[in-house]
Design goal:
10 strands; single chain; three-stranded antiparallel sheet; 9 helices; Aminoglycoside_PTrfase; Phosphorylase Kinase, domain 1; Aminoglycoside phosphotransferase (APT) family kinase protein; Kinase-like_dom_sf; disordered N terminus; kinase; Aminoglycoside 3'-phosphotransferase, Chain: A, domain 2; 286 residues
Amino acid sequence: MVEPAESPSLVRRLADRLGLTVERRLAGGEWGAYLVTGADGDRLVLKIMPRHGTGIFERVQLAVRLTDRLRRNGYPIPRLRDHGRWQDEVYTVQEFVDGEVCPRLTAAHVRQVYELWRRHRGAAAPHGADWPAEFAAQRATGRRLCDRLAGTRQESLARRITAILDTAETANLRTSDLEHHDFHYRNLMVDGSRLVAVFDWEGARPGDSRRDLLRMASTAIGIGRLEPEARDLLRDLVQQEVPADVRTALGASLALGDLGFGTYAGAEPPEWILRSCAYLLDDLVP
């Protein structure tokens, strides 16, 4: 039996192997992030990657190389101390940044996020995304999701998303932007109105950074953790930066992931997932 990656005993064994002392689990993180102390007394963050498919270590290695460019140019990304493989796990160790995980987006936060987001464009070159292959895979995922949700309240939404993906145009999608791939307001570290770090870059890849902007807007709007001025500013920025055909394709791509995640355990998805999908597909805002 494979031990879950979030198992405290597994985390402690890995920490012991790396010469780290586990202090506590941190909020957030799909399979957990842990505050640890190094032998020199430095506070660090140990993360174990979710086992999503094959090639996880290679994807993390590419993300490390791509994000290191941004960090060296002043982008506020926590410095990576170590990454590697241990047994069946892929892990990262990065510096701990003082601050607070963003509890609620303000207009000041959005303006800072936007200025950072603009630096994602072209930042993955010479690497490039293969959009035809990615959308072919997403169409197959959509059909499986339709089968899984057959007879449920969400079947019609799954079929609608898949139908959009079936006809989505990818010719105008950019290929060499650096896409964070989970550009979520809960992956922002703030000190009051000041943005001090963007974290959780292990899934970064070449792609179209406009999907990141849509992700920031859809999660904040779906969950409702933003001020009205921030909501309006995010919507305006999306309308300004994301043409209709690009929004249709990338919005359906994100909605597919949201609905799949929200129904993975077979339960009804959280309301925020449905609100996020409504924003991504129809620009509906509660």
